[in-house]
Every structure is written in structure tokens, then in C-alpha cells.
Amino acid sequence: MTTEAYDQMVLHVKSLQQAILDLQKFGIETGSTAPSHYGFLVSHTNATISLLAICAARSGVAKVEFPEPLNPQQWASLIIMVHRSYLAGLITAVEAICSGYCETKTRTVSPSRSGRAPEFLDYVNSALNASRLSEDRRTFWRKCFDGMRILRNKCSHFDTSLAEHEKTALHDAGLASHIGGDGRVQTQWSDYSSLAQKVLSFSQELETTSAG
Questions:
Q1: How confident is the model at residue 12 (pLDDT cuts 50, 70, 90)?
Q2: Is residue 75 part of a domain?
Q3: Domain range spanning residue 103?
Q4: Which of 44, 70, 96 is the last residue of a domain?
């Protein structure tokens, strides 16, 4: 790491440490005297503190003391935050793959709605349309990524209950394991690798078919 890069990292870490202090103060302000429906905000804030501490510790330029252990509700909120981040990042990775693939075919990602930026499935459809995949495989991948889109969207809301058509879409996408017994989205750490593998398989199938 160059001296300039190191100095820049130190500034980032100092900013992170200040953010942690600010959030800790905020947590006190929204503590036990606040209405019970503030609980999610408090848990979310404390979970964020943990992630910021990890970022600072992984910088390699400072030793960071982790905050006090989280209570069960706060820990659950941290896990939800990680799930949400992973699913959102995975969708972004698919968009990047589709955009890059379209560029190699001198094609562009076309929005399905005039005057709007391309949406997630626009990226997928643009890549599929630029490929030589059979219609059956295109349908397969559309269903797969529609299921991932549902997971990402549901995990961004307080209520993660799945409508019947969303459950059907997850079944069609091979993602039925993400439907909890209570009808809500469920995600496990063990799902991360299989979801990433689906994305990699999609990319490899695009490239292999193009080369064939």
C-alpha cells in the first residue's frame, strides 16, 4: 500500500469511528424510554455499528474494539442486514454480467419502459436477446432471475410475506427453499454459495453458447 493510499485509509477509518460514536449516542436517545415500535430502528442501528466496526478492523490500519455483544433481537437484525446486502449485491452482479456481455456483442441494455432507466430484468432480457441460447434456456433463466428479484425486493421491506404468485415464481425458479413455513421469505447462510453458483452458471452458459 502506498503512503498516499495508507493516509487515505486512515481518514476513512477515522470517519468510520466517528460514525460509530454518533450511532451509539443515537442508540441511547432511542433506547428504553422510546415507544416499543422504535425497536426495529434501534436494532438496525446497533447492527450497523457492528458492520462499521468490521469495516474499520478489516482496513488493516487500525485496531478496533468491537461494540458490546448484541442482544438476540439486535443480532437477528444484523443477520437480516447481511442477507439483504448479499441479495442486493448479487442482483448488481447479474446486471454487471449482463451489461458486460451486451458490450461484447455491441448491444445495449434496453429499458422496457420509455423514459426510464433499465430495470433488473431489462438487463437479463437484453443479455438473453443478444445470446444464442434456446428459447427454453432463456425461459429458464428469466424464471430464475425473477425469483432472485423477488427475494431481493421482499428483503428490503418490513413485511416479507409472500403473495401466492410470488411463491409460485420462487418454485418455478428453483428457490422454493426460500419460502418459510409462515409464508415469509427465509434465507440461510448456506444459500449464499448456491445463489452465487446460479449466477456463475448463467454467465458461463452465455459465453459457452456464444463460442459454440
A1: confident
A2: no
A3: 80-211
A4: 70
Task: Please give the tally of structural domains in the chain.
Answer: 2
Distance CA 155, CA 140 (A): 23
Burial code of 10-42, b = ≥16 C-beta within 10 A, e = fewer?
eeebeebbeebeeeeeebeeeeeeeeeeeeeeb
Q: Does this model's pTM top 0.70?
A: yes
Q: Is residue 66 part of a domain?
A: yes
Domain stops at, among 51, 70, 89: 70
Are 26 and 103 found together in one domain? no
* Predicted local confidence at residue 31, as pLDDT: 55
Q: Residues 195-200: contacts with CB within 8 Å, 24+ apart?
A: 195/87, 195/90, 195/148, 196/90, 198/144, 198/148, 199/90, 199/93, 199/94, 199/97
Q: 115 with 10, same domain? A: no
133, part of any domain? yes
Q: Is the pLDDT of residue 139 over 70?
A: yes
Residue 138: what residue type? R
For the purposes of burial, counting CB atoms within 10 Å of the CB of 206, is it exposed (0-12), middle (13-18) or buried (19 or more)? buried
